[in-house]
Amino acid sequence: MLKVQQRLPSLLDPPVAFAHRGARAHAPENTIESFTLALRLGATGLESDVWITADGVAVLDHDGVVRRRGRRTPIDRVKREDLPDHIPTWADMLEACPGDHHVSLDVKNPDAFDAVIATVRSVRPDMESRLWLCHHDWNVVARWRSSTSAKLVDSTRLQRIKEGPERRAAILAENAIDCINMHHTDWTGGLVTLFHRFDILTLGWDMQQDHVLHDAFRMGLDGVFSDHTDRMMEAYASQIGTGPWTSSQSQAQALAGQITTNARPRILSISIGPKSRLSKLCTRLSPITNTMSSGTVWGAMSVCVPHRADGSMAATCSRFK
């Protein structure tokens, strides 16, 4: 009987499941709370963006600016002690998140590189081999090779590779750059295989939907980035066949209490046409609304219905109150 291979091989076995800015679908992004929650949910990697402060401290934040006296000020003009409390240092993450997970840092300001390496060697020297350093200019990344054993990553988009994917793969290999990271819509199984021929690892980001996550693991990517750590780890367990937890109950335990965090609420709005059978719709939505409360932080659910004089639709809508 012919056996059909369901998943293309990855160079890393198993691939890395990176929690993008921590478990940001469930907790405030780029905070110690978000990073530790991601690990409890089973993530095998954490992701953040790193900047350098005016006094030379590597800190984790996405935008790299803070509001001071009503103005947006770049972090590199602010001392560490003057930053908001929720912005952690790179050292804070290393100390708060023990374990053998990976960490991917998007080095938005190349001036932060020296502080990143000095910090990891001082606080967690074992982590350097599991550290991934990303930048959008491979020429900048290539200059880091002689200074670190961390994995170096070319973060780009397919349309920006003017010389073509095969030539880019050769360039990365020639410059000892370990990996390329692109948006999930740029990747195909064939493209993953092409980079693997040059021993270049492949990463994909912005993977939020279940089917996208499953497809990513099936095409052989060596790492994926997602805001939804719970969904990512479900796909990981399904496609890779292993996982740090074995049941939805352990996910629920990890998420216990997270509904009250400061994560941005999501709102579901449904509009119903005048001929819709609302009672049937309510029945189908019930399991969905029940699921909402245990996963993503939902702020509200809105059902918009046409007015009816006898109030029958309003009565049916009361089932959602």
Record keyword descriptors for this entry.
single chain, 321 residues, alpha/beta, TIM Barrel, 2 domains, eight-stranded parallel beta barrel, two-stranded antiparallel ribbon, 11 helices, 21% strand, globular, disordered N terminus, disordered C terminus
Characterise this structure:
- The protein is α/β, with parallel strands linked by helices and 321 residues long.
- It folds into two domains: 16-260, Phosphatidylinositol (PI) phosphodiesterase (TIM Barrel, Alpha-Beta Barrel); 266-320, no CATH class.
- It is built from eleven helices and 13 strands.
- The protein has helices spanning 32-40, 90-96, 113-123, 138-143, 165-174, 189-197, 210-218, 229-240, 248-255, 278-292, 312-317, and strands spanning 16-20, 45-52, 58-60, 65-68, 71-74, 102-107, 131-135, 151-155, 179-183, 201-205, 223-226, 266-271, 298-304.
- It has an eight-stranded parallel beta barrel, surrounded by five helices. Strands 4-5 form a two-stranded antiparallel sheet.
- Helix 2 runs parallel beside helix 3 and helix 7 runs parallel beside helix 8.
Question: Would you summarize the structure shown here?
Answer:
32% of the residues lie in helices and 21% in strands. The chain is an alpha/beta fold and 321 residues long.
Fold blueprint:
Layout: E1 16-20, H1 32-40, E2 45-52, E3 58-60, E4 65-68, E5 71-74, H2 90-96, E6 102-107, H3 113-123, E7 131-135, H4 138-143, E8 151-155, H5 165-174, E9 179-183, H6 189-197, E10 201-205, H7 210-218, E11 223-226, H8 229-240, H9 248-255, E12 266-271, H10 278-292, E13 298-304, H11 312-317
Parallel strand pairs: 1-2, 1-11, 2-6, 6-7, 7-8, 8-9, 9-10, 10-11, 12-13
Antiparallel strand pairs: 2-3, 4-5
